[in-house]
Design goal:
The complex is a heterodimer. Chain A has helices spanning 2-9, 22-45, 51-56, 58-91, 97-104, 106-109, 112-123, 130-137, 145-170, 174-181, 186-197, 199-215, 218-223, 234-244, 246-266, 268-274. Chain A starts with a helix and ends with a helix. Chain A is globular and about 65 Å long. By secondary structure, chain A is mainly alpha-helical. Chain A is built from 16 helices and no strands. Chain B is built from 11 helices and 10 strands. The chains are: A mainly alpha, B alpha/beta.
Amino acid sequence: MSRPADTLKGGRTGPRPRTVPLPLLLPALLGLAFLLLPLIALLIRTPWSTLPDQLTSPGVWQALRLSLVCATAATALSLVIGVPLAWLLARTDFPGRGLVRALVTLPLVLPPVVGGVALLLAFGRNGVVGQWLDSWFGVTLPFTTTGVVIAETFVAMPFLVISVEGTLRAADPRYEEAATTLGASRFTAFRRVTLPLIAPGIAAGSVLAWARALGEFGATITFAGNFPDRTQTMPLAVYLALQNDPAAAIALSLVLLTVSIAVLAALRDRWMTAS
Amino acid sequence: MTRSARRTHNPLRAAGAGAALLLALTACSSSSDTSATSATESSAQSGSSASAASKVSGTVTVFAAASLKESFTKLGDQFEQQHPGTEVTFSFGGSDSLAASITGGAPADVFAAASPRTMKIVTDAGGTSGAPTTFVRNQLEIATLPGNPDKITSLKDLTKSGLKVVLCDESVPCGAAAKKALDASELKLTPVSYEQDVKSALTKVELQEADAAVVYKTDVRAAGDKVAGVDFPESADAINDYPIAVLKDAPNAEAAQAFIDLVKSADGQKVLTEAGFLNP
């Protein structure tokens, strides 16, 4: 484990720091510039003089507040149903488990708009499950804040499941077994032994899921629509502001960028050691 | 660990990939350069447009508002038949995002926008050659569920409580037009969502998630029997003009003009009015 950390830290402890081959260095710097330049451009083109006005408009805070609330709710929902799912995938054996795991990760690669359409067909007013929700309980999910949370959970939960499953696989199952031989039920062993053991993995997965939920756009606008203070999250506000007020869109993007960087920076160490 | 080992093993591969990327980039830019020069050369050679009409060749790239999709696809086929050796490629989308692409340097020949405001974004940036002209107009209509189960007959009916209505966002042309119609009739309507474009507003009705949407007549017609259309008189106060123009940096300006001529011809107007557009 120490070797990759050394190389990551740069020249001092690595072997022969000066012999970085040029064919590697140039593409590497190009890659770095490619990833950072758009963010720098955003900072350069930010209308700093009008920024305070842009950011104090009530619409921005509505959207930001809604974004934070929904991303947090989506993360909580992911924890409640995602951690048990990860445990199932890591600790039990059943036919077709490989397939289930592949399906769980599907939202990671699925275009979010496709996810939104699929959610509409499942939970929409006329959807496979949604029509029963509508006729039995009078509950319709599209165009509601709950709909936003569901769309975000659909897209973000796989990050949590993958992270927790990986941690579970790395954790020694013999601690759990020892607990059960000492008389604990499997659930007690999970609660008292497994959970504390994999807490860093859960934290890392939660952060990833939260960050993904915060940036979620496609599934949200498709499934939950766009209405201020109810379903209009920051990414939606940015997209629509871009249509007629690019300066406002840049200002909103800056807020979202700041929040995202703050979260990733705060949990960088934990995230690195978990992977 | 395996990853870092693999990386150090194969420095040549990385270098090769980088070189290939650079080559591809230069190839791209040089090819667009040559096509641009050949376009200017050919337009310089041909002189009068009447004699050159039959000599039109190459690819015409048309950026057009999403609402023009059905009729422009038809007109593109007609154009290719009338001018053998040409190919029309389309990019359909929201007028605003298309305008942003064009001012951002997208290599397009023709821009057909759903509103003068979005065309103005391009003309203000000096992106068109010559003034844009209005080639069709579009009127709003209410789209409801098939058979109109909620018995919607007027714009006012949309304000009934319990009815789920979607509108386009004010920032896109169909939303601006809907707002104009609602303001003119002093109606206050709270939709369940402000959609980002006219097609997504209509989709919500097609999927029966919403009971009604205010969209263009042409979209209702294109949706066939998946929705029902309800005309409302206030739509006459909020008609959208569609401007079209040849772009200044058009790689194939000659063919671009020929395509616009077709759109404005009697044949072209027939295709467009069949789709529900109004003559300008």
